[in-house]
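Budget justification, computational time. The allocation requested in the original proposal was used primarily to generate structure tokens for proteins on the priority list. As evidence of use, we reproduce two of the resulting records. The first is shown immediately below.
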Amino acid sequence: MNTEKKFIESIVEGIQEKKGHGIVIADLSEIDGAICKYFVICHGNSPQQVEAIAGSVSDYIREHHGVKPISCVGLGTNQWVAIDYADVLVHIFIPETREYYDLEHLWEDAVLTQIEDID
């Protein structure tokens, strides 16, 4: 398995650790002009859960890959946190904000992979 896939699996594990919902991986790697290779999109049911998911993802990536994000924006806004790992952008929303921005369909040529929620 290639490094990007392992990296994304670690992100998914970090999301699942805090019971994030609706995980979607958008593969943008074949789209000219895309800002990165992958989006990993999910939501939490509350602002506190969104922040907990962001912390968990950052911890998982640091522990398993020794990488810190290039940037992390949105902490404290209670709506949307974006974590930038260069080739992979992680988007963590509250449900209403996720529905409004609809990132899954913004890049309509992306290949989407949905990850089943765990209970």
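The second record produced under the same allocation is shown here.
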Amino acid sequence: MLDHIYLLCAFGFFVLVIWAIGLQWKRRSLYVAAAKMKGPSALPFIGNAMLFMCKNEKILMKIYTLIKMYTPGPIRFWLGPLLLIVVTEPKHLEKIMHSSKFSNKFSGIYRFPKIFLGEGLISGNGPHMKPDRKVILKMFDLNFVAGTMDVLHKHVELCLNNIEKKVDAGTFDIYPLIHFCLVDYIKEVVLGCSERTQLSGMLEFDELMSDGYELAFTRMAKPWQHIDFLFNLTPLGRKQEYIRKILRDKGQKMMEVAFKKGNLNNCSNDFHAVIDSMAQFSEEHPNFFTEERFVDHILTLYAAAEDTISGAAGFFAICMGMYPEYQERAAEEIREIFGDSPRPITAEDCTKSKFLTMCIKEILRLYPIGPILARECTEDFQLDEWIIPKGAAVVIPAFNIQRDPRFWEKPNSFYPEHFLPEAEAKRPYYAYVPFSVGSRGCVGKIMAKYVLKVIACYMLQRFKFEADGTSETLKIRMDISVRPINGWQVRVKKRVWK
């Protein structure tokens, strides 16, 4: 009997070895390509996963430091069985972003936000992506943004009144006040709902959306949480399912309401919410969006807008507070445009504020909305003397590229002069990618830029900000976006024009 057990174990071990050899052979192109690239030593099976066995708040700077050690690239990392090839050269990035072989998001990583957002523009892949993106992109043009200005003014005015209550009240975290404002604005112009988060507080939907960012990032960075059937047995797995159900149910209900509204010409608003435009398009082209993909897109558009713009506006307040000389320069420019008394800001006004634009560009350089992006290589690709093999992920570390001393005079400092025309002319175009680039670039970047300018103008018209430290000493982390570890801490004073 014992002999049979030994024989069975030996046979099982033999089968396992044969399977492992076969798997290695099938993946040989990955190993051959990786061997010709620089990168940290990797262990069998787990690769470089041990490097990321730390708290989430430390992962961003750990990645930044590791990539700096091996720049210029390409640089290879193994995240468990996943081959990640990090590209830090703008000339390489340009070739990759213009190739159809990299039009897919890397499913090995983006499958985690896909749990919540499905086949939306952030996490989706497949033949539907290009036509879907083309339709949705038209809904976020400059005319749409200009049409939402009155809605933005309404919500920002309430936000400013809430900030005014903090004048001379000491240090506080400004992010919740800005975030609640942006939640209300994005819900109204994207989802078609008028909710007063600034008055009543966050709903469960909004809180779970934030929890979803953190959970998805945790699974992205930690390969031992990639195995679904094991993860689903854990408390985090049960939380993931709860978040998914609430978000998807809410998205389904919002879609049903949009279809019930009927003809958009009957709307009293000067603009049509994106969800209503999508509903009208769906009625005119009934086979274009499935119901599930419709929900995927509206959840993605909301998630991609409300949190990221809020964070950038919060960083603007911090940097203005840390660098008062730049704050005063931006405020004086705003005074020249608007005079001493605040008035409603138009889309045309936003084009006049040259220095303020430089400041916002610098915010997005230091704290990019997408600090790390990943695309899947669908066919072998020759990149100079290297081959990027099919199945590998190309990682674009915007956070590193936008702080690379080869391209930036003061890489870790808040220095708006980086965006003087003569400085921009000397720099490679792909050294600055705050909204991603290529066929999967951000569809909402026009809206993000204008909303940030409007909020910045209003804030500097009414307030002076103070903040401790510098951009070099500010401790930051990331989940889907970049955040300060200790919150967006500022002090506010009333602005009095001299």
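A brief technical remark on that second record: The radius of gyration is 24 Å.
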